[in-house]
Structure formats: structure tokens, C-alpha cells
Amino acid sequence: MQIIDITMGEGSVGIIKQVKIGDEIFALKQFKKKSGEKEYNIHSKLNHENILKFIVGNEEYIISELMLPYDLFEFVKSAGQMSVNASNCILKQLVNALKYMHQLGIVHRDIKLENVLVDGSNYKIKLSDFDASLNIDDGKVPKLIGTSGYLAPEINSIGLIDALNLLECDIHSLGVLYYILLFGTFPFKTTKASCVLYKMIQQNKWEEFWYYSQRNKTKKVPSDCLELIKGMIEQNPQQRFTLDQILDRIGEINEIDYVNEMSKL
Q1: d(Cα 236, Cα 154) in Å, to the nearest integer?
Q2: 202-234: per-residue pLDDT in tens?
Q3: Annotated catalytic, 110?
């Protein structure tokens, strides 16, 4: 195994580099302070076409398939607003990945643009980064795990929550991500009481929320997408759309148009 001295990214958990094994190049995630046992245990169980492929690893490192050129954040940054078709193609792939994980009793806990990788050869979407993930039978776990702006209201405070209830939190985060794809911005700047847009959602004033979301946009988002977002970021987790309900509402997608759009970004 030859580690190529190209750092692709660094976070609080580890450093991502390229590694050559034989004639193939993979991604190497080196954990800091040997803190990767939990992520290794979870990632090694996952095998799905829309999840970053695990190759080998342990509590010190994980080797996975190499995904180039970008994560989804870079595509949205380039596009500004994704088309409805592209947004729905991406959403469908992520729902399938989450549905697979949830059926295994695993929650992701940090759904965001930066944790979604895009295969530059076919633009297939791959969910990655499982350092915050856990099993739903882990009992009481801390809230406030994830990324600000994506957190569901039920975990956006200090305290504990039953891990079983984190399934709906993944869906809320996915709803925020879907909004960003369609609008090019976050639905709200903060989830504090000072945020007018977030307060509109809390008070169920959706017509006002959509007006202020779209008033400066030349490209309007159709009503069926708005209803989908509303159902995913619903404040009450028990009334939030399920993954199956999301799939039913996505509608038809055109994969050729999706690839053509992504290839131009």
C-alpha cells in the first residue's frame, strides 16, 4: 500500500488522503487518536450503491472507493439552484441510501451537502462520513449532534433523546438539503427565536414562508416540491413524511437530463 501525499480533506475526526493499492487508487481516512472504532464498525456493515463503498479498515483507518471530483456542496455552489429534475434525482438516491441504513437499524445523524459525494464518471450519489452515526438500539444518546442548520427541532437543544427517535431527524436534515438544492440557500439562517423565517415554520405560516423564500428568485419552485419540503421539515417528528412517502411524491425523473446537467457544472 502506497500513501499518495495528496490531502483531500481534514476534519475533527480524521484526514482524507489518496492511497494506491496495486494499480488502483482509493481514499484513505486516517483517524485522529485512534478514535475511529465506531465509524469503522458502522461503515463496514454498509453495502449499497448510494453509499460510499467500504474496502477495508479498522479503528485507525478506513479505505474506501475514491470519489472525484466533488462533494455535492461544490455542485450547488456552481449551479446556484439545481433544476427540479436534478434535485429529485439526488433526493431519490439519498432516500434509498437512508432507507437501507434505517432498515439495518442505523441512523446517519449528519446529512448535509458536504457528506454527499458525486461520482464524476456517472454522477451517482454516494452518502459518506459515518462518524456521527449510531444504532437505534443504543438507548439514550446526546442531542445536538450533527451540523447547525440541518438539525431537527427535537435535537436542537441540550439533553438526551432515545436513539430510536433519530430516524425522523435524518428525514428533517434531508429536507433541509433538498431545499438547498432547489433554492440555492438554507431555508433559515438560524433556528434561534430571532430568525423570522424559522419562526414562520414554527407557527405554521407556510404561505408567508414560501413568499419570502421565493421573492427574489427568478426560477420558481413548483408547489409539489414545496409540499415535499414542508412534509420533510415538519416540526412535529410524528407528522413528518416517512421515506416511503417521500419516494411516492418525487414523481418521474429523467436520468439522462440529470447527467447532462451535472456534467456542465
Answers
A1: 8
A2: 999 999 999 999 887 878 899 999 999 999 999
A3: yes
Q: Say whether both 137 and 46 belong to one domain.
A: no
CA distance 3 to 18: 6
Distance CA 113, CA 127 (A): 10
In the numeric block, the cell 433538498 is attached to 178
Burial of 174 (0-12, 13-18, 19+ CB in 10 A): buried
Question: Count of domains in the chain?
Answer: 2
CATH of the domain at 145: 1.10.510.10
> What average pLDDT does the chain have?
93
> pTM of this prediction?
0.95
What are the start-end ranges of the E strands in the chain?
2-10, 14-21, 24-31, 54-57, 61-65, 106-107, 116-118, 125-127, 134-135, 140-142, 160-162
Q: Mean pLDDT across the stretch 118-122?
A: 92
- Annotated catalytic residue within 5, 23, 71, 110: 110
Residue type, 211: Y
Q: What is the pLDDT of residue 5?
A: 65
d(CA 229, CA 172): 9
How is residue 71 annotated by DSSP? B
- 226 and 133 in a single domain? The answer is yes
Dihedral, CA atoms, 246, 249, 255, 260, nearest 10 degrees? Answer: -90
Q: What is the secondary structure of 150-185 as a DSSP string? A: T--GGGSSSSEEEGGGHHHHHHHHHHHHHHHHHHSS
Dump pLDDT digits (tens) for 62-105: 999 998 768 999 999 999 999 999 999 999 999 999 999 999 99
